[in-house]
Amino acid sequence: MRLQSEKIYLRAVESSDATRIMLWENNPSFWHVSETEIPFSLHDIHHFIENSQHFRQTGQLRLIICLNENDLPVGCVDFYDADFKHRRAGIGILIAEPENKEKGYASEAIRLLAKYGRDVFDFQQIYAMISVSNEPSLRLFEACGFEKSGVLKSWRKTGKNREDIAFYQLILEEL
After folding, report:
1. To 5 degrees, how large is the angle CA 57–CA 61–CA 65?
2. Distances (CA, A) of 73 to 25, 67, 99
3. Whole-angstrom distance, CA of residue 127 vs CA of residue 144
4. What is the pTM of this model?
5. In angstroms, rounded to a whole number, what is the distance separating the alpha carbons of residues 14 and 32?
6. Residue-wise pLDDT tens for the chain (175 aa)?
7. At what angle do helices 18-25 and 42-51 cross, to 10 degrees?
8. Nearest CA among 118, 72, 121, 114 for reference residue 97
């Protein structure tokens, strides 16, 4: 499977991605958005990759974002907490390196995954939960057509503080 747009394509996670994913998952600077608390082992990542074929059972699907020009993986995009009965899933995205941010890769990945979710899994909507302080992500999801439908007060613990989370939805039937 390969979903392609102007600058990027999305592909399935492969076993050769394990070390890269482990480095991304174990980078503490990303933990505040992924809610990770402890590092993952390479064994954990391999187990995750093996189970990635079972989206309907696990509710999570991760795809690798690669550049069309050179096949370089620059990040990943996920469906999580997929609910097939109610036709919805959460969406998360990571562009790993600062030099690859603000180049349109994330918005292309979100649009590709949204269309895939609608066309293949018959999702009616996808949602994102974003820290209100994460202004780049708020702008990204708004630019992709997501609408803020609420704020979860004091939802996430960050260090010794608590943070509000904005809840964004995209109704896919309107795409």
Report:
1. 165
2. 15, 7, 13
3. 12
4. 0.89
5. 26
6. 679 999 999 999 998 988 888 888 776 666 566 666 667 777 877 877 887 778 999 999 999 999 999 999 999 999 999 999 999 999 999 999 999 999 999 999 999 999 999 999 999 999 999 999 999 999 999 999 999 999 999 998 887 889 999 999 999 986 6
7. 110
8. 72
List b or e across 39-68, with b for residues whose CB sees 16 or more CB atoms inside 10 angstroms.
eeeeebbeebbeebeebeeeebbbbbbbee
Which domains are assigned to the chain? 2-174 (3.40.630.30)
Q: CA 121 to CA 127: how far, in whole Å?
A: 15
Q: Round to whole Å and give the CA distance between 148 and 29.
A: 25
Q: What is the residue type of 108?
A: E
The label of the residue with tokens 């609608």 reads: 118
